[in-house]
Structure formats: C-alpha cells, structure tokens
Amino acid sequence: MKKKDIDRRKFLKILGAGAVTTTAAMYGCKSENHSATTEHPGNIPTDKMTYRTNPTTGDHVSLLGYGCMRLPTVPTAQENGDDIDQEMVNKLTDYALAHGVNYFDTSPAYCKGRSEHAMGIALSRHPRNSYFIATKLSNFSPDTWSREASIAMYRNSLKELQVDYIDYMLLHAIGMGGMEALKGRYLDNGILDFLIAERKAGRIRNLGFSYHGDIEVFDYLLSRHEEIKWDFVQIQLNYVDWKHAKEVNPRNTDAEYLYGELTKRNIPSIIMEPLLGGRLSNVPTHIVGRLKQRRPTDSVASWAFRFAGSPEKVLTVLSGMTYMEHLQDNLRTYSPLHTLSQEDKDFLEETAQLMLKYPTVPCNDCKYCMPCPYGIDIPSILIHYNKCVNEGNVPQDSQAENYRNARRAFLIGYDRSVPRLRQANHCIGCNQCIHHCPQNINIPKELGRIDQFVEQLKQGTL
Question: Any bridge partners for residue 235, and if so which?
Fold first, then answer.
C-alpha cells in the first residue's frame, strides 16, 4: 500500500460509526430539501451494506452507489462562482467507503467539468481495489464527436481519476438526439468499436450505456447485445416512472419496460433518478403524512430508495449525496435493504397516482442546459416552481382562501432563489437548451409559462 493510502481501520476509528458533520455551511451543486430525512438514534452499521453480484465480472457492488453530479461546493469571490469543497468531498468519500459503499459514478460533464478531478483526489487516497469507478464518454457537443476528440476525452478521464483502468464505462445519455446523435457520437466515428477494444485490453472492465428518452435507440442497442455483450445499462427508475413515465413526460419510457427488457437478457440495471430529481423526497404535505403513517421512523426518501433497490437484477442505485445527512439516511436504508412487499408496492403505486395530480416540471437539476448564453438560471427557476407546487404555494385563483399568502410566498421565494437578471423573463427562445435536456423538456415553453404566471401574480390579475 502506498503512503498516501488510508488504512481502513484507522479512518473507521477517526470517523466513528456515528460521526456527525455540520451541513449548514455546505454549498452543493443544487439546493436540497433537508426535511426529507429523519433523525435516527444510534450508530450506522459499517458491516451491513447490501451487495449485488455483477454476473459478468463477479464484482460485489454496494446497492447504494455514490452519484458525483452534485458534489459540495464553496462560494468564491467571482460572481455566481464556486469551487468544489475538496475537504468535504474527501470526508464524504471516506465515510461512504467506511460504511460499505464501493461504487462511485462521475462524468466529464458533472459539476462544471470538475467532478472527475475531485473524485480522483478523494479516491486515490484509498487502495484501488477498494472501489469501483464509473465514468462516461460525455461527447454531447458535435465538436466532440470526432474520433480524436472522443478518444482524448476518454484518456483525460483516466488522467483526472488517477487510474489506469475504468471499472464501469458508459456511453452517456443515449437517446438524446435520437439515432442521428447515436451514429455521430459512437457509430460512424468508430468510437463504440474503440471502447470494445479497450474492454478487451482490460482498460475498461465493464461497458454499458445510460439511457435518456428515445426508445428506438434503446431497442436498437439491445438488439446488438449478442454482438456487443453489454455488461450493464443505466436507466431511470422510481415508483412514479415505473408505470407512469409518459404521464410525467410524453417522451419518456416506463421503467417497467426498460427493466424488463434488460432482465430478459440478463443485463444488470444501474438505477439513476430514484428520487425523480428530488421530487420524491420533497413531496406535498399530505403525501408525507401518508408515508409517515405507514412507517413513522423512516424518511420520505427511504421509500423511493427501497423501491429502486428491491428488483433483484438491480446492481446499484445512484444517489447524488451532497450532504452528510443524506448519505447517512441512505446508508440506513441499504444497511441492510428491507425489500418491499407486494402490499408496499401497491401502496406506492397509489402514492404515485396521487403525485401525478401535481403539475411539476420534470427537471432533475442535472444542469446540462447550462450555461444559458443569456445568463438565465434555468434549473433554479424550474426547481423553485416545483417546490412551490409541492408546498401548495402556487396560487390558482385570486378568490381562494390562501391566495394572498401563496402569492407572497411564490414571489418572494422567486426573487430569493433566482437573481432578477437571471429570471425567466429574459429568455428569448433561442432553443439551445432544448437539445441538451435528457428529460426532453421544452425549456423555453416552460420558462414562458412560468414568466407569464409571475407577471399575472405581480399584477394581481390571476
């Protein structure tokens, strides 16, 4: 072991099984709702994590995977600037490893391009065989579609992560742009063949793809499974999207179908968006009451994570854990996992149908739409709107009993969440953001709708 490696027993002793970290001073890549977690007495076990076995490589992978898209940051002197809080990233990584998490998922596109570098620093302090690193070929822009640019991106990932092989390599966001984008990014330039050759050479141990939106692309890639031998596929799965993905967004595909097609081929599923972009941890009050009545001591989020982890062909469930309290809550859920009964599944299906009555925008705050060339803070606008919908602070009628309070809460919260020069009224409809959204949201249309709503509230004409 190298001198920079941390002895497991030593850092377990330093951290302690019940270590508590102050999170009030932490700044993440997104604004999180802390009310979704519940304080639990006692220590979090370090030896109870649930593991699943990869049928291809035999990897024993923790059911809880660490998503590195929303690493903690600290503000800088620059306007709207921030830096990765490396000290906190190191602490979260150490704590996760100490409690059994061994799968870390990053990308060249995450955290303004800084996630791989930060995770390389954090993970390189530990023995290489103590963790699995997943990253992606995130060649979204046409100027990165060339063979040379794509290979350079792949090799830079190895450099930033300080490794000489990638455990889980993904073709990133397959489905965005349809078959044309798939051909341009991976097929016509020979990059898929290159990655298969890298797997054969041992520099990639598992090869898969993450799926976003276009079912034709998903079905096409699975039709080539016998030739390519996909080792895993990453899909969006949660208790709303299981049967109702198209009701959330007409371009999406029900997770029940995606998971079923993978299971038929014995391809492990890696799960993203178990909380539906945070919406299943920040639910309306009466939904909170419904969940708490059934399991009073469990967090709201734990229901979604139990749902995502219960299917037996799920290899790991990713969670973007910016805060220590979220990491600890998820560790409790999976250490060990108590799988859902059929009665639990029926209960969550009823809950999903109740959730669909609330017209939120299907934004998961991935920030792929950023930066906006006109300075609009797109994710913050959509997240604020969704938050107000869930909290009942979206006034629908000036005659309603709570209209005045709801109107005030929405407008004040809007100005606090989004600087005025970055609000929806500055959108000119250039449509550049549409092509980058993995949820296929018509962003200019939604911004126009929200802007019109805000103007009606300001003028009192709603």
Answer: 271
Residues with Cβ within 8 Å of residue 266, at least 6 apart in sequence: 55, 313
Q: The dihedral of CA 209, 210, 212, 218: what is its sign?
A: positive
pTM: 0.80
**Contact predicate 317/65, CB 8 Å:** yes
DSSP character string of 180-245: HHHIIIIITTSHHHHHHHHHHHTSEEEEEEEE-S-HHHHHHHHHTHHHH---EEEEE--TTHHHHH
pLDDT of residue 360: 78
The phi, psi pair for 89, rounded to 5°, reads: -60, -45
Contacts of 447 (CB under 8 A, 6+ apart): 376, 378, 381, 424, 427
Place of tokens 């925008």: 361
List all residues 6 or more positions away from 349 whose beta carbon is below 8 Å from its beta carbon: 239, 242, 243
Residue 414, token pair as written in the block: 């809007």
pLDDT, block means (10 residues), the chain with 462 residues:
44 36 31 42 85 96 97 83 94 98 97 96 98 97 95 98 98 93 97 98 98 93 98 97 89 95 98 92 87 95 98 97 96 97 97 83 83 91 83 68 81 90 91 83 88 84 66
Instruction: Show Cβ contacts of residue 162 under 8 Å, excluding neighbours closer than 6 positions.
Output: 120, 121, 123, 124
Strands (E), 258-414: 269-272, 314-319
Dihedral sign for Cα atoms in the order 332, 338, 342, 344? negative
- Is residue 38 a contact partner of residue 326, using CB atoms and an 8 Å limit? no
- Tokens 């049967």 correspond to 243
With 0-12 / 13-18 / 19 or more C-beta atoms within 10 angstroms meaning exposed / middle / buried, residue 312 is exposed
